[in-house]
Write a structure and sequence with these properties.
The chain is mainly α. Belongs to the binding-protein-dependent transport system permease family. HisMQ subfamily.
Length: 230
């Protein structure tokens, strides 16, 4: 065991492996957070189209497009999506691997967030829409000012869980030449073929990140409950 620790220390400290780990940590958080932001934007648009598609023919067309989009991205593994974008869609295009990963994770997240947002919108009592229309508000205004704020409050905890899932899924980002946490520790492990310590440390880093995110999500949930009581 001492030999393993010495080999890990040599690669991590002496030979500067910690620089890759810090870069990987930064990229992992960037991919997860920006991926969720893109996912929320896309998912909200798709969810609104699906809900409005029940009463509007134009929205129904976009709802069908949204159905295809969610089926494709929910029905294929994210690593396959990364490989298709990297080797087919962006083949020959000079694009940074980090940007590529953020885009793919955002598209993947949007497919899941669309269902989260649709469920959140439908969870709002139908009487809220009827009350808004009775007061003379348009369908769009009622959705934006009455229904949507309540839906967001309902889905915030679930969106937090989506962020946690995205963070763990970033472990495959290294397949498109992005320095994520997994790739950083894999470089340390393969430098001297000592895998036990690097991969245990990798698991520990992910565990700490997820625990911190879990605490933040629970604090947000608690704050939302307090605001509802008021």
């Amino acid at each position: 065991m001492q030999v393993m620790w010495e080999a890990f220390y040599d690669q991590f400290v002496t030979k500067g492996g910690y620089r890759n780990v810090l870069e990987g940590l930064r990229n992992t958080l960037i991919i997860a957070v920006l991926g969720l932001v893109i996912g929320i934007i896309l998912g909200t648009l798709v969810a609104c189209a699906q809900v409005a598609g029940r009463r509007n023919k134009v929205a129904k067309v976009f709802a069908r497009i949204g159905d295809v989009y969610t089926a494709v991205f929910r029905g294929t593994p994210i690593i396959v999506q990364l490989l298709i974008f990297h080797f087919i869609i962006f083949a020959g295009v000079n694009i940074d691997g980090l940007i590529e990963a953020v885009l793919v994770f955002g598209l993947n997240s949007g497919a899941y967030v669309s269902e989260i947002m649709r469920g959140g919108i439908l969870s709002v009592d139908a009487g809220q829409m009827e009350a808004g229309r009775t007061l003379g508000l348009s369908y769009t205004t009622t959705m934006l000012k009455v229904v949507f704020p309540q839906a967001i409050k309902n889905v915030v905890p679930t969106l937090g869980n989506e962020l946690i899932a995205l963070t763990k899924d970033t472990s495959v980002a290294g397949y498109v030449a992005t320095m994520d946490l997994t790739r950083a520790f894999r470089l340390i492990a393969t430098a001297n073929y000592e895998f036990i310590i690097p991969y245990l440390m990798l698991a520990l880093v992910y565990l700490v990140i997820i625990l911190i995110m879990t605490v933040i999500v629970r604090l947000i949930e608690r704050r939302l409950r307090k605001s509802e009581r008021r």
